[in-house]
């Protein structure tokens, strides 16, 4: 079993993050990571003053993108502020100093960041951070009011001990609040923040000998889509994966396994602290009673392959469903016939809250990007329309949330 946290598939939305010169600038690094975990691309613009607090290399390393600072720094792009302004799906200023606030409120464009803000048509989110007296100064209050009237979204500064020694309002808001406000502008919910979601995905592989194995058909796409969606919605995600040809989603704790026994062990551990368990893996039902340490011989006379003894694998969903407590448990039923009847039996036998049922067979579900399913719970059966596995992942998470106490 191996564990890791890795990078993901290409994000579709871009947040341009403006970092201004303030002691809280180091927190922008956490903001970058949290936005990336939500599946968002981040490009950073720093003011000259911000570079005194955090080295641009930090943001360059985190974003794998050039960090823009001066209006004329990019010789390949003489109107850099316009291209950055157009790339932004959301413009976020965090931390935003009193000075930048005043410039934006008055349409002043005298550096790359303020010029880009003036040039963008994207929604603007501002998280101010400054000394309490600067924050309470009528000039700042007036500027904030002006910007709010123009539709700029504010993530209010918090109260507490400030870097200058004063105590009061002016601390940069919590990273989670800033990220939530930003993602809300992109239509991404954060309703799983603080929740631990455990997901099994892909097939398991049961070795017969060093060359041969028993497995199930599974691309792992559904489980990976659920993991990606859960991370985007703020969850801590553990994805326990059999061998698949997919990239790990951003910000997800990966546990790579081969056999059903390994998957069970990893799932038991992750389930301890899980709020939601989603069992999307296509676990092999059987394994050889003994895995040979040499390649077994075939052939009529001395075949070692005939009569391989098979034993049943543990049922991971059933084992953990039996001790679910308050956790929400979601299982799958991929059936070739009598789909709903078989799914109903699994709902009860495996102690699940929800079974996601679908018809499988020629060209259906396996490895495809779309799926048409039913949700069965102990009250009702709901038929969902054909949808992408990404949309289905969100629907499964929303359904799970209905059961979370
Ligand atoms: O019994 P069947 O394999 O059709 O049940 C499917 C559901 O049970 C899926 O959610 C699958 O991940 C789970 N399962 C499991 N361990 C097994 C077999 C199935 O967790 N050994």
Question: What does the model show?
Answer:
The chain has 405 residues and is an alpha/beta fold. The protein is 32% helix and 24% strand. The chain is built from 13 helices and 22 strands. The strands form six sheets. The protein has a nine-stranded mixed sheet with strand order 1-13-12-9-14-17-18-20-21, sandwiched between helices. Strands 3-2-4-5-6 form a five-stranded parallel sheet, with helices on both faces. Strand 7 (158-161) and strand 8 form a beta hairpin. The protein is elongated, with a radius of gyration of 26 Å. It binds cytidine-5'-monophosphate (C5P). Cytidine-5'-monophosphate is lined by residues 200, 260, 279-281, 283, 313, 315-317, 331-333, 346.
Helix and strand layout, with pairings?
Blueprint: E1 2-5, E2 13-19, H1 27-37, E3 40-46, H2 56-63, H3 80-87, E4 90-96, H4 98-105, H5 112-119, E5 124-128, H6 132-136, H7 138-149, E6 153-154, E7 158-161, E8 167-171, H8 175-185, E9 196-201, E10 205-207, E11 213-215, H9 221-232, E12 236-241, E13 253-256, H10 260-272, E14 276-279, E15 286-288, E16 310-312, H11 316-321, E17 328-335, H12 339-349, E18 354-359, E19 370-371, E20 374-376, E21 381-383, E22 387-388, H13 389-403
Parallel strand pairs: 2-3, 2-4, 4-5, 5-6, 9-12, 9-14, 12-13, 14-17, 17-18
Antiparallel strand pairs: 1-13, 7-8, 10-11, 15-16, 18-20, 19-22, 20-21
The protein binds cytidine-5'-monophosphate (C5P).
């Amino acid at each position: 079993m191996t564990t890791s946290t890795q990078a993901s598939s290409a994000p579709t939305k871009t947040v341009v993050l403006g970092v201004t010169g303030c002691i809280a600038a180091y927190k922008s690094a956490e903001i970058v990571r949290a936005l990336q975990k939500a599946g968002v691309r981040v490009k950073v613009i720093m003011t000259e003053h911000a570079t005194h607090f955090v080295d641009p290399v930090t943001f360059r390393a985190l974003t794998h993108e050039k960090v823009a600072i001066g209006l004329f720094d990019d010789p390949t792009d003489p109107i850099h502020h316009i291209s950055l302004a157009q790339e932004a799906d959301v413009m976020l200023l965090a931390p935003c100093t009193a000075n930048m606030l005043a410039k934006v409120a008055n349409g002043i464009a005298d550096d790359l960041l303020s010029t880009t803000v003036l040039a963008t048509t994207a929604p603007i989110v501002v998280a101010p951070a400054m000394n309490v007296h600067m924050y309470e100064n009528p000039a700042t209050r007036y500027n904030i009011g002006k910007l709010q009237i123009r539709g700029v979204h504010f993530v209010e500064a918090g109260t507490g001990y400030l870097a200058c020694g004063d105590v009061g309002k002016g601390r940069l808001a919590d990273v989670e609040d800033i990220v939530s406000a930003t993602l809300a502008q992109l239509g991404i919910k954060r309703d799983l923040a603080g929740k631990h979601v455990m997901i099994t995905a892909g097939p398991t592989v049961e070795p017969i000998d060093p060359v041969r194995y028993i497995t199930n058909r599974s691309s792992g796409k559904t489980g990976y889509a659920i993991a990606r969606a859960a991370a985007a919605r703020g969850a801590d995600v553990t994805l326990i994966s059999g061998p698949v040809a997919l990239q790990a989603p951003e910000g997800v704790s990966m546990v790579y396994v081969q056999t059903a026994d390994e998957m069970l062990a990893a799932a038991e551990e992750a389930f301890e602290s899980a709020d939601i368990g989603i069992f999307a893996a296509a676990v092999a039902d059987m394994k050889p009673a003994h895995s040979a340490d040499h390649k077994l011989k075939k052939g009529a006379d001395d075949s070692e392959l005939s009569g391989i003894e098979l034993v049943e694998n543990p049922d991971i969903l059933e084992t953990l469903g039996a001790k679910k407590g308050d956790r929400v448990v979601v299982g799958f039923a991929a059936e070739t016939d009598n789909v709903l009847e078989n799914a109903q039996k699994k709902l009860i036998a495996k102690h699940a809250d929800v079974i996601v049922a679908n018809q499988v067979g020629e060209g259906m579900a396996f490895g495809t990007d779309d799926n048409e399913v039913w949700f069965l719970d102990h009250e009702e059966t709901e038929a969902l329309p054909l949808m992408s596995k990404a949309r289905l992942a969100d629907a499964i998470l929303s359904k799970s949330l209905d059961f979370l106490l």
